[in-house]
UniProtKB/TrEMBL annotation, chains A, B, C, D:
Catalytic activity, as annotated: N-acetyl-L-glutamate 5-semialdehyde + phosphate + NADP(+) = N-acetyl-L-glutamyl 5-phosphate + NADPH + H(+)
Keyword Oxidoreductase: yes
Domain of life: Bacteria
Annotated active site: C131
UniProt pathway: Amino-acid biosynthesis; L-arginine biosynthesis; N(2)-acetyl-L-ornithine from L-glutamate: step 3/4
Lineage: Bacteria, Pseudomonadati, Bacteroidota, Flavobacteriia, Flavobacteriales
Gene3D superfamilies in alphabetical order: Dihydrodipicolinate Reductase, domain 2, NAD(P)-binding Rossmann-like Domain
The protein, known as: N-acetyl-gamma-glutamyl-phosphate reductase
Organism: Salinimicrobium sediminis
The keyword NADP belongs to this UniProt entry's keyword annotation: yes
Gene Ontology CC: cytoplasm
Record's keyword terms, sorted: Amino-acid biosynthesis, Arginine biosynthesis, Cytoplasm, NADP, Oxidoreductase
Length: 321, 321, 321, 321
């Protein structure tokens, strides 16, 4: 049994972490630090937890926790770790972008278990990947791992409204988003940097471009991603490559037939479909942006770091219908 | 051709008024007054109007306009009319609650054409009914007009997110409202006052209670209302009463078969269904909260005041699917 | 470890049972009987289970199973049990309406744990309550249990599209239901019989009417129910009554503040809010129609029958956002 | 005043035609032919028309009509015109795919007014473009018209559930589609043929590939399309090209700022945004699949054929919120 803490407890990713960790057999949720909600019951914000927990948001951290999850806005994790210190044994999982790009200035390990399981198992600090980055990386890294990304990749992905965070904005207002659709940050989404970084680690000669158009969907959760690129082999060869890449994966599966969001929403899974058209390979991936794209993957990384079964606490029931 | 002005142009009701008046053959949209948006193109806020109008939000009013619509927050119409004056010929339609209850202090006429057509035609100042008030009044006033409201009325109605106004709030955030449902202000909704007022004008001996539970639906537009009460007569007698009440109505129809929102959304119609169960009469009414429940009815009142055909500019295509 | 079977495996309630039982630590899912899907992988229909189970729909039943769940259309459970027999030890949970009304012709126990826990624990055959029946019963039975239902009860409830079953129909077509709302079967819903039956068992002098209007909401899962009736006591007295009624309940909680669907969807919970207005008590209840309103409650009943902890396998993570 | 007939009256495109033509000042809706609905009131199927029309579906056609719209399934228009004949003066607008590709065997003119206005004005028979074809053609044909399509084009578009027709299917069931997303027919959508045909008519040396991934969105109406390709010029030069291409267009506008579905749904408009990134031009287009993508464009073509103002009867109010 380990003691876990959460920093920044009122947002979506913290909420999902709380839901998972409260039910995790190896974890005691030691504290949830929130300056804005301090002293309030956790179930007053995450109201689905009514009757399940008497936890109160805390205005103080416990520096002796075994593991701490940082659920802070981008840029704030660096600041928080400068201002606060934890015991030597404390492992940290950061859900922001702050440490995702490897650098001499920090020792965070990129927490994508499908391609980094061993390093994660030995790590003390984990940079949890972005939601789009996870969906896209799982779609294309098996090709990079085999030096097969030879030309530009064309990526289009759509995310739910939880992808935009809890703050209110025009595009998260119900009357705007209901029955609507739009794209944003075309070719310039901030996750492109970490994806390119992952690609080049696996295929150092990669010189092509990842063309990525993100979109806002009128649903709450989920990412649907299509990516296609030049591929010489057959569809069967592609499947072999991907099945080999994911044969040990706890949550990532190559599947036949159409993939869609309801197959994965409210689970930690990523489903991947492969189709060959002419000389192009189309890879479609789906996942839940808050789980495999954030908090679920964070717990998966925690499981690896502490030697728990990789799927412990993460065998979640999809709502599906 | 009359000159029309709108006060408070960035919200939902102003937006709908603009859309209707721009296409109204007898109206020139003279000015749209908005302090927050002054000098901006109207199509920068109401972006569906791209290519249709070069109008600019104005920081000044034209006191010589033939008709002025007040689209201000509740309480602000009184304040605005205290601070601004219009020419003697200027007719005013107020969409707020400020003047809906008849009082010696003002000369506004309640703008429910089905029960007030003559007074509206002669009026200079109109208090446009509330959205729930319109749906409920059209459901029960035919009974009041025949002194048939003998016992309590049990009313349950649900409104779309536009009913809550453009401001951002927890319950209008997409991730809250999507696939959700809740009730609010049970038995205490502010529209009860104007509905009771209308009932008592028609049936002065009414002493029973209107029990009204409003609900938030996860859709953008529309009100669906069920109301039931004791009724001695047969279903056929009820239909005769209602059909007589609405035989001259331009937009309110008694219909057979189920009623639902898609029959009326984006139109100025109200559809009404009557069913008898035991000694209870169930009346179901549906309308678009922004049109028959606000801006459409405001234009209907304008048409009556200026002697235009009652449905002019209001023959709107439902989206239906 | 017990062996469980499911009869009729392709629908919503069977799907939810499969999801729950696959993760239940005391249950082995022995067979899923489906004539229409026999020989197909379960994950080809319930596609969220990809990677989790190799189970195949079976064309045969195992009469030696410890527990069998009947997920058949109303009327078909009687027929099925006439045509098939199980071992003496086999316990049966029927999710249809067929055995919900106590009768000399059968020995099924009504499976509402909050009011029937002891009988359920000793039962061999369980009639699982209807979804609306559960939401409404949990809202009003504490009053009946105290002989406090003195006048008519006015009930309005809305259910998601899964309430209509998997078959395609006009009102479950996306283009009809999206952003729509309607009522149906007013005062005549088939669940009224079992609710009245439950009320009269607790308050034999009940002579008033349960007035119930069901509605179709444009969401997939969940029931939101408001019920009000005459109540002499204070709001605090009402809370005491309800809190006492549910002090041992595993999933039913009296809560402060607004209740809404996202608090309970994808969980086995029922949340209840109490408000006093004048001499009326308003009770609002919310639950997931497929879980507490069907399959979750069925497993809860199974847990009680086999002496497992009541919430085993049912500590489900809400999606909430 | 011309006499119009509709063949196949119960579907989405027929419904929209009826709504538009009933309000068109130059058209009398002479007959609506439907074998499945013959003798039923039109308002019993298109229920938003309650109170507006007493029209009855007809089991017979009027061969003397001035214009006839064919709203039949793909393949059935050819069959219908083989089996039925109309007067010499009768103009025909076919909404199916049957005549969209020019061929010696027929004399239908492709009804995309932005690029074919003169031929349409002189035409007797019009093949109305497909919905995706319209959105994509309006996005890329200005480049083709200037011989600027030099490399592959990468197109991703999403359509609402009305795009799949009125028949019930798994992917149009509410519980499947609600809060879901998926792609289909990648690189092989049937509209690619007519788009390629249009491109090559304008740029005969076009040898590149249109890579098109269509998607199913969880909304009822609308198409959102992104297309990008190599473009040497600046963003300003692109805007000049497009503004020139659409300077006479009645409903297609180049716009600044984000485009989204609510700007165009329930109107006959297409909005287009242009953005330059590196050496790529990104074109985003939005339209209503049932209006500019079907019935609205059909009426636009009718207006041109009969010399009516191009936008007559088509100045539709968006619902926007």
């Amino acid at each position: 049994m380990i003691e876990a803490g959460i920093i920044g407890g009122a947002g979506y990713t913290a909420g999902e972490l709380i839901r998972i960790l409260l039910r995790h057999p190896e974890v005691n949720l030691n504290f949830i630090y929130s300056t804005s909600q301090a002293e309030k019951p956790v179930s007053s914000i995450h109201q689905d937890l009514t009757g399940e927990t008497g936890l109160i948001f805390s205005g103080e951290i416990n520096p002796e926790a075994d593991v701490v999850f940082l659920c802070l806005g981008h840029g704030n994790s660096v600041k928080f770790l400068n201002d606060n210190s934890f015991s030597d044994k404390t492992k940290i999982v950061d859900l922001s972008t702050d440490y995702r790009i490897a650098a001499d200035s920090h020792s965070f390990v990129y927490g994508l278990p499908e391609f980094n399981r061993e390093k994660i198992s030995d790590a003390k600090f984990i940079a949890n990947p972005g939601c789009f980055a996870t969906a896209i990386s799982l779609a294309i890294l098996p090709l990079a791992a085999n030096d097969l990304l030879k030309e530009d990749v064309h990526i289009n992905a759509v995310t739910g409204a939880t992808g935009a965070g809890t703050s209110l904005s025009e595009t998260t207002h119900f009357t705007w988003r209901d029955n609507n659709y739009s794209s944003y940050k075309a070719f310039e989404h901030q996750h492109l940097e970490e994806i390119n970084h992952s690609v080049k680690k696996l295929q150092s000669d990669f010189r092509s471009t990842l063309n990525f158009i993100p979109n806002r969907g009128n649903f709450s959760r989920g990412i649907h991603c299509t990516a296609y690129t030049h591929f010489e082999g057959s569809q069967e060869e592609a499947k072999e490559i991907y099945q080999k890449a994911y044969e040990d994966a706890a949550f990532t599966f190559v599947t036949e037939g159409e993939v869609h969001l309801k197959q994965v929403v409210n689970t930690n899974k990523c489903l991947i479909r492969l189709q060959k058209f002419g000389n192009k390979l189309l890879i479609t991936s789906v996942l839940d942006n808050l789980l495999k794209g954030a908090s679920g993957q964070a717990v998966q990384n925690m499981n690896l770091m502490f030697g728990f079964p990789e799927n412990q606490g993460l065998q979640l029931k999809a709502s599906y219908f």
